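Subgroup meeting minutes
Present: P.N., E.W., G.H.
Scribe: E.W.

1. P.N. recapped why we're keeping a running log of single-chain structure predictions: easier to compare across weeks, and new members can see raw inputs and outputs side by side.
2. G.H. added today's entry (914 aa).
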Amino acid sequence: MALALGTRLGTYEIIAPIGAGGMGEVYRARDTKLNRDVALKILPDAFALDGDRIARFRREAQVLATLNHPHIAAIYGFEDSGSTHALVLEFVDGQTLADRIAKGPIPFDEALPIAKQIAEALEAAHERGIIHRDLKPANIKVRDDGTVKVLDFGLAKALEPTSAISPSLTNSPTITSPAQMTSVGMLLGTAAYMSPEQAKGRPADKRSDIWAFGCVLFEMLTGTRAFDGDDVSDTLAFVLTKPPAWDVLPATTPASIRRLLQRSLEKDRKRRLADVSDARLDLEEPFASPATESSAGIVIASPSRSGWYTTLLWALAAALSAGLAVALAMWAHWPKPSVSSPVRLSAEIGADVTVGVSGAQGANLALSPDGKLLVFAGQRANGVSELYVRRVDQLQATALSGTDDGRDPFFSPDGQWIGFFAGNNLKKISITGGAAVTLCAAPNSRGGTWAENGTIVFQPVAGPGAALMRVSDGAGGKPEPFITLADGEASQRWPQLLPGGKTVLFTTGSPGRFDDGNIVIQPLPDGPRKIVQRGGYYGRVARSRHLLYIHGGTLLAAPFDLDRLEITGRPVPVLEGIASTSGTGGANFAVSDTGTLVYLAGQGTGNEVPMVWLDRTGKTVPLRTTPADWGGARFSPDGTRLAMDIMGAAGGGSRDVWVYDWMRDTPTKLTFGPVTNVGPIWTPNGRRIVFVSVRTGANNLYWQRADGTGDAQRLTESTSNQTPGSWHPNGNVLAFTEANPQTGNDIKILTVDGDEARGWKPGTPTVFLNGPSDEQDPQFSPDGRWIAYVSNESRQPEVYVRPYPNSVGKWQISTEGGLYPIWSRTRSELFYVTPNQQIMVVSYTADGGSFTANKAQAWWSGRILARPRGPYALHPDGNRFAVSIAQDATTKHDHVVFVFNFFEELRRLAPAVR
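Output recorded in log:
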C-alpha cells in the first residue's frame, strides 16, 4: 500500500518514499519520540491475511535484531498500525553499491575496502548462524565517508509465506512464482546473484552468501555482472552452466583476488570457499607477492609464506570444520618456520554455555602464559555460571567445581593456578580442579594480576577511591595497599604487572567513560607515574613489545619501549568488534607470551542503556528508551516519578540528579554540576530529595525540593564520605552510611526537626551500627520497626535485618551474597540482589519483637545489569521493577576467535622501534 507524506504509524511520521520491491515498500520516516530518522519497510498486504506468517516473521525479526555490527544496518523494532505492519530499520544515507557500479568499474583502492567491509558484515552474521540469502549491490549502501552498511540481513527468510516454507522459497526469496519470474528489474537482479544451489531449489548455507559476495566483487571490479542474461531464465541458466568471463577482469588484478573470485564462484559448493573470514584475510593483503605455478600445476606460495606452511594453514581451516582438536594438535606439534604468517580461526568454546556472566561486564576469558590453556566464565541457560578450562588443542571444556559465579579470571605466572572473583571474594583454584581457596574479600572488583613473587595485585571495589591492593597468593588475609591514588584518579582497574614485577600498568578514568580514560604505568615501589595512552582502556603490554588497548570496541596497538616505559609510534587499529564495555573498562581479549591472541567477538559498548519494566513473569516493557548511564534509581512515593543520577550527554558532562516523569516521558534536571551529585532518596511525602554531593570536598548529604525550586540545603558536615539510605515513615529520621577508616562503613541516624513553614533543623547524627565489619545501605521497613542492611561480617556481603530503634538482635536474610535490600510496601516481602545480579525475594512475618524470614527465592530467573548505587527500583505497587537488561542477553556467545602468530601481525602493523 502507498502511504502519503505526513502519514503517522505510531510514533513514526512518513517523510519520503525510498523504494519498493518484492519485500515491501520502504519509506524514510521520522521517529518523533527519539527524534531520529528511520527506514520503515511496509510489509506486503498479504501479511494482514496471514496471522501465522506475522507471528513467524516476528520471531525471525527478533533473531535478526540481535545483529549488532558497524557494517550491518540495524533492526529497531516492529510497528503495528491497524492492518499495516512495518519493520523499523536504521536509516542509512548514501548511494547503493548498485548506483555506484552504474557509473562504471570501481578502482581497486576503492573497491577492496568496500568488499572488506561487506565480508566483515557477513562474517559477523555467519558467526551468529544468520544467512543473508539475498546479497546484491542494491542491498548494500556506501556512505560518503566510505562506510558500508549491508541492508536486509535475513529478511528473505523472514518474509517467506508460512504455508510455503520449502527449499525453493527458503533460498529463492524474491522469486516466488513462475509468473513473477517473467518480471524485470529487481527480480532479474536477484537471479544474477543467486547461487547454483538456490537456483536448483536446494537449502542455502553461508557458502550461498559467499557466492553472492563473489558476484558483487566481480561486478565492482568489472562494471558487469558475473552472470547476466536477457531474462531470469537465461540468467539462471548461466549461473548453473557457464563460468564468468574472467578475461574482463582488469589486467592489474592481483593473483590473490583472482583466486578469491574463483574459489567464491565455484558452482560445487563443496569446493567453494568455506568461510568468509578467509575472504576477508585475502582482501587485507591483496598486493602480496604473486603466487607462481609449478610445472605440475601446484600453487606455490610467495616467499613470505613457505609452501608447507601455507598448506598447513589451509589444513587447519579445513580440519576446523570437522574437529578443532585435530587441527590445533597439528599446530601445537608441527615445527614452525622462522617467519610465520598469522592465521585466524573461529572455534566453539566446547561447552553448552555462553561466555560471560549476566550483569558482570568485565574480562571473561584468559590464556595461560604458554598459550595452551583457555579459561573462561561460562553461564548455563538456567543462569548458573562457573569457570571452564579447555586445552587449546582439544574440543571439550571442563567445568571447575567450586567456581560458582566466577568471573574475571587470570593465570599465575607458571600457568598452574587461576585467580578469579566470586561471591565478593578473591579466590584461586588449580587448573586441574580441586577446592577453590578464598584469599580475601574483594566486593565488586575490577581485575587482578599475579606476580612471580607470589603476590596478587587487584582492585577490590569498583567505586571511587578504589586504589590497587595486594595479598599473598598463599596465606591470603587482609589486603594491603599496593600503590596510592594520584590526583585526579578515581580508581585503578584491570592491572597488569610487567615482566619482572617491577612495573604495573592499569586503567584509570571516570566510571562509565573509559573510552576517554587513561592507561597509566607505575614503576614500583614509588617511581614516577605517567600516562602512556590517553583515550582508551584495558591496557596490556605484549611480549612483542607492543601496548594493546581498547577504544570504541577496537583493539589498537602501538610499539612500546620497555626501558623508557612509553609508546614509540602511532597507535594503529588491529581488530574491530572486540566484546568490551567502556562502562567498566573491561574487555574480552587475552594474549599469551607465545604470541596467541584469543578474543570474544562482539560490540564494544558503553554504560548507556535503556530502562525497562520487569514484572514477576519476566515480561519486559520499555520504560525509558533513551539510553543513559543511570544509577541509584528510586520511585517517588506515589510511583509517578523516578529519581536517578545520570552521567554523560544527558547529564551535561557531570553526574547529576534527574527526576523522570515516566507517564509523560519527561525528564527534568534537579542538580547542576560541575561537582558530582548522586544517590537520590525521596522524603516520604515526595516533596524533597536527599542526595550526595562533593561540593565541600567530601560526599556529604544535601536535599532540595523535588520540583526544582529553591536552593539545595546541606544536611550534614563531615570529612568522611556519606551515602543516604532511606527515610523512616515519619519523615523526620534518615538512615545513612558513613565511611569509617577502621571498619569500612557505619550506619548512622540523622533526625531532622521542623516543617516547611518553620524551616528545618538537622540534628547531630548518631550511630546506629558500627561493628568491626562493614555495614551499609540501611533501609527502613514500611512500618519503621526494622532496618535491613548489608554487612560483610561473614567475609562476603549479606543482607541482615535488625529492629529499630533498638539495634539488639539480628536476622540474616541472604546466604550466598546479598546487596541493595528493598522492602515491598504492599506485601510482606524483602528484595535483594545477588552478586551476579539476580533479583531475590524473601517473604517474612514480624510479630512483636520477632522477625521470621523464609527461604529466599529467585524473583526472576534472568539477570539484570549492574548499575552504580543499585541496579533496580521497586515501584510502590510491589509488582514491577525499573531495570536495565543486556540487549544481547538472549544471544549465546559460544565461539571465540584465535589468532595464531599474532606477534607477526603486530610487527607488520606497528613495527617496534629498536
